[in-house]
Amino acid sequence: MKIVVLVKEVPDTYGDRKLNLETGLAERDAGEKVLDEIGERSLEVALSYADKNPDAEVVVLSMAPEEAAATVRKGLAMGAASAVQIVDEALLGADLGLTAEVLAAALRKTGFDLVIGGNLSTDGSGGVLPAMLAELLDVPAATALGAVEIAESGVSGSRVSDAATIQVSVSLPAVISVTEALPDARFPNFKGIMAAKKKPFETLSLADLGVAADAVDAARSIVIGISEKPPRAAGVKITDEGDAGSQLAEFLVQNRLV
């Protein structure tokens, strides 16, 4: 079985997030960049299956700038057999639609039995990419799974909603996405880090994928306006002169907090 895991380099969750006021794009060099945690959890699902099934092949796939290669390579250090990175300057600022089309083209080229991704990234938080990929690839999708069971013929799992826990299953080939309810990912050990340097790492361009330049240049999602977040206003200070409780209750009511 060939399992392709979608991974992504994102700004550190605990760092500052900034947008370029001229382009509307995230300033990804403003802080430390890391492999998205939900992508690591997705990879853990694949690696856990491969640990028990030696014939399984795990590939990490990412669409990212060339300098993100070191981050993507972490997936190899964790245990993936190979990596594919799509690098092309024309993809700067790509929206979800274009990203899905390019990743789908890469998946057709590499081949897959199962694609695993996170339910949403920690930077864009779109939450629709796995479903878009399944549509483009014409395969079934099982999204937002909090538990996953992979078998030779299909995948089953559970999805928690506000009202119930739903059991779902799909036959292979398929696309699934997982949530943070899945276990934490393993840490790369020294042996894995050293082995990662010798594992296949393929870099593909749009031309390699057969994606026409005019398809990329076509207007899709555009930023029509952006401004800095206004400074935080001073809070309300309550001085207790015997009526602090009443003042607090009135404040909560006025701000519809109760």
Polypeptide structure, described:
It is a single chain. The protein is an alpha/beta fold and 258 residues long. The protein is 30% helix and 23% strand. The chain is built from eight helices and twelve strands. It has helices at residues 37-52, 69-78, 96-110, 129-137, 190-196, 206-209, 213-217, 244-254; strands spanning 2-6, 9-11, 33-35, 57-63, 82-86, 114-118, 141-145, 147-150, 154-160, 165-171, 174-178, 201-204. It has a seven-stranded parallel beta sheet, with helices on both faces. A three-stranded antiparallel beta sheet has the order 8-9-10, with no helix packed on it. A hairpin with a 4-residue loop joins strand 9 (154-160) and strand 10 (165-171). Helix 2 packs across helix 5 and helix 3 (96-110) packs across helix 4. The longest helix is centred in the N-terminal third of the chain and has 16 residues, at 37-52. The protein is globular. The mean pLDDT is 89.
Number of strands: 12
- Uncertain regions spanning at least 5 consecutive residues: none
Shape: globular
Global Rg: 22 Å
State mean pLDDT (0 to 100 scale).
89
Question: Share of helix among residues?
Answer: 25-40%
Q: Note the gap between the termini.
A: 54 Å
Most strands sheet: 7 strands, parallel
| Strand line-up in the sheet with most strands | 7-11-6-1-4-5-12
Q: Helix and strand succession?
A: EEEHEHEHEHEEEEEHEHHH
So what's the oligomer here? single chain
What is the count of DSSP helices, taking H or I runs of 4+ residues?
8
The fraction of residues in strands falls at 15-25%
Structural class: alpha/beta
